[in-house]
Amino acid sequence: MIVDDEYDVVYSLRTVLEETKLFQVDGYVDPMLALSNFKADTYDLVVLDIRMSRMDGFELYKNIKAIDVRIKVCF
């Protein structure tokens, strides 16, 4: 999962990762939408932007960790 409030960043990272044929990527520009769609044991890694509107990356991190304590997160 990639969450960044800039569409171009999400699009670029998603495209590069999916072109390898090794990854399936869900990308979100809205952290609230990302959180509502996050499910435990679905993702291997979440890539988060730190500064986003509505909810910053650290707050999103805390909420995601409350759902799945084993998820790996990269800021």
Can you offer a commentary on this structure?
This protein has 75 residues and is α/β, with parallel strands linked by helices. It has a 4-stranded parallel beta sheet with strand order 2-1-3-4, sandwiched between helices. Helix content is 41%, strand content 15%. The chain has helices spanning 7-19, 31-37, 57-67, and strands at residues 2-3, 27-28, 45-48, 72-74. The protein contains 3 helices and 4 strands, in the order βαβαβαβ.
Counting DSSP E segments of at least 2 residues, the number of strands comes to 4
Stretches with pLDDT under 50, minimum 5 residues: none
Please give the radius of gyration in angstroms. Answer: 11 Å
Shape, principal axes of CA atoms: globular
Query: What pattern of helices and strands is seen along the backbone?
Result: EHEHEHE
Strand order of the largest sheet: 2-1-3-4
Beta fraction of the residues? 5-15%
